[in-house]
Amino acid sequence: MNVKQLQLKILFSLIVWSVPTWSADPPIPNPTSSFYVLDKANILSESTEQTIIQTSAELARKTKAQIVAVTVNTLEGYSPEDYALAILRKWGIGDKQLNNDNL
């Protein structure tokens, strides 16, 4: 291999490695400290948020089921199902063995 070929291979490698990698998952916000409500679209009243938090926390204590309410302004081009699944996975909602997650 001559120097010119080596330079081309190095250049090609640098170009390939500098291309950003794209994630298959949508950009998911982190959960709030209350965990059960994230109102990014600002459509829930404070009393509604508190009701969801209290009801969900009580349900989790009694049954180990977790229900989380999330509102967003955009799904970033993803389907509602894919976006919800990404939230379930990132936040760790529910128990895999009990299959008790709801969003």
From TrEMBL:
Domain TPM stretches: 37-101
Signal sequence annotation: 1-23
Species the sequence originates in: Thermanaerosceptrum fracticalcis
Keyword DNA repair: no
Gene3D superfamilies from the UniProt entry: 3.10.310.50
Name of the featured protein: TPM domain-containing protein
Domain of life assignment: Bacteria
Lineage, broadest ranks: Bacteria, Bacillati, Bacillota, Clostridia, Eubacteriales
Keywords, ordered alphabetically: Signal
